[in-house]
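Before surveying the methods themselves, it helps to consider a single example record, giving the amino acid sequence and backbone structure tokens:
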Amino acid sequence: MGKLMGKILAGFVFCLLAPFTLAGHHEKGEMSANIMAAKAGYDAFNTGDVEAWKKTQADDLVFKVLEGLPYSGTFVGQQAVIDNVFSVLEEKWVDFQVKPIAFYESGDTVFIHVRMTAEGLDTESMHMATIKDGKFATFQAFENSALMMTAAKK
């Protein structure tokens, strides 16, 4: 009975952990379609090419930034993000950049570990995106709002 219980327990643990241990694994140097799509969005943002950025985003994109920042809120659609988030970033942080450090994938969700820099700002953050049909369908930022506000222009 003890061996059977051990096998059942081992099987149960494997079933619980398998999605996490296998998520996002690809051949060495190979990127999944979802990670390539996420990377394309960050590349476009960092070049300042708004039209290229729009091509990486769903028309009905849902973009969420948690409380504590002047651009906090939930915004639906590309133009709402440009008007309510990107314009504030330009205004409050000189030379703002978001550079991906690593991408992690679980299903159609991509987690992006980033370094954010600007004049007086150097911090890391996590972002979470859902990729559907090769485009960002949802985006959520988990920022260090206190540190960012310390570096923001008044």
In short: Strands lie at 57-65, 73-76, 97-106, 109-118, 121-132, 135-142. Helices lie at 2-22, 33-47, 50-55, 78-92, 145-151. Confidence is low (pLDDT under 50) at residues 9-26.
